[in-house]
């Protein structure tokens, strides 16, 4: 039971970390300079885009970790 809680906590930290990482990466592109008048909803679009990309990256990373952790069962 405690191992499940630890795994859930690690997954939440990975999810939030990847979302933060993609948010800072997207901000590095400075999308405002591509518009003469940036739309008022551009910050919201950046947040939503970073959430989507961060979730996908975190899901891949968590799936990869789960697959690697099950490899010892192949050798039994």
UniProtKB/TrEMBL annotation:
It comes from the Bacteria. Keywords: Membrane, Transmembrane, Transmembrane helix. The chain crosses the membrane at residues 12-29, 41-65. InterPro entries: DUF1146. Pfam families: DUF1146. This is DUF1146 domain-containing protein. It comes from Limosilactobacillus avistercoris.
